[in-house]
Amino acid sequence: MTRLHRDHADNLSARIILESQIRDLTASLQQQTADVERERQLMAVGKDVRQLISATQTFNILDVHDCGGGGKSAKAFGRVFYADGQALIFYAFDLPSGKLIPAK
What we know:
This protein is an alpha+beta fold. It contains one helix and three strands, in the order H-E-E-E. A three-stranded antiparallel sheet has the order 1-2-3.
């Protein structure tokens, strides 16, 4: 009977280890899937920006600011790219509160 209990305990511990590995691999796969999707979106956006910047029509870049109740402008949180006759593209971002902006 002792050997049966020992085998059962060994099987149970092996199962727990395998389930933990499955959870870790699943989390890793989900992260990699999200990373690939983000890269795909960035590549598509990069193509759009390159087309806009190379447009022969008038090209405009406008920073978007938030205005407080007193009418004072806060830091920029977005940028609008526009070329006459083409799509309007808005990029939102979160700038750091310091004076230096990291080159990301």
